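for the recovery benchmark. tokens below, seq after
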């Protein structure tokens, strides 16, 4: 059984998280939507994005907290949604 590796978190819906130097298929960590971004990973693709301003301060850039710019853009394109952020987040939460 896989669950979030954050201490005491039992969430079973997780993203495989990889550091940029990980060249295997084995994720370094598995974190849930809440904890992946806390540890610096995008919860969409699982890549390590901490330290990138566009990721750390996504909302100030009009993005979505916890998603890297690639995933942010991808999700927007998929939904065909560009200007209604609230509705967009609802959709994405449901999506997961
Ligand atoms: Zn968690
Ligand atoms: Zn991403």
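predicted aa per position
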């Amino acid at each position: 059984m896989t669950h979030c590796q954050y201490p005491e978190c039992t969430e079973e819906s997780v993203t495989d998280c990889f550091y940029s130097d990980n060249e295997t298929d084995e994720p370094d960590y598995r974190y849930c939507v809440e904890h992946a971004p806390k540890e610096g990973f995008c919860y969409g693709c699982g890549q390590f994005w901490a330290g990138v301003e566009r990721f750390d301060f996504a909302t100030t850039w009009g993005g979505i907290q916890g998603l890297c710019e690639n995933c942010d853009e991808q999700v927007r394109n998929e939904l065909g949604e560009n200007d209604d952020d609230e509705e967009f987040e609802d959709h994405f939460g449901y999506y997961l």
